[in-house]
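Researcher: We're reviewing a set of sequences before deciding which ones to prioritize for further study. For each one, I'd like a predicted 3D structure that I can look through quickly. This is SPW repeat-containing integral membrane domain-containing protein. If possible, include the structure in token form so it fits the rest of the review sheet.
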Amino acid sequence: MNRWTRWEDYVAGVCGLYAAVAVLWTAQTSTSTTLMVVFGLLLVVAAVLNLSMPGTPWLEYAQCAVGVLLFASPWMGAYSDHTGAAWTSWIAGIVAAGVTAAAIRPAMEAHHRTIPSH
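Model: Here's the predicted structure for SPW repeat-containing integral membrane domain-containing protein, in token form for your review sheet.
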């Protein structure tokens, strides 16, 4: 598996970046701003790490978990009634988690191919 070539990680990173900067044009609460920026930036960091170190399954699981947390954040932060912020979190989170979940199996297979056998 080559570095910087996995489209799934680029999509997850763009979702995170979009969630983080969407606070500039969507109606926000202080909690929604914090959660969207934190989870969005965590997705970007996870995506960059996944792109630079392909075949690392635990990073894929971490990225997927952050996507799920972004999806759940409107309920966790009680901003599900703020339509723009909530929909941004739901869509960006589920897309990031979905594409990352699809990438977990290939990452595990690549990881197993790189482990030396005894």
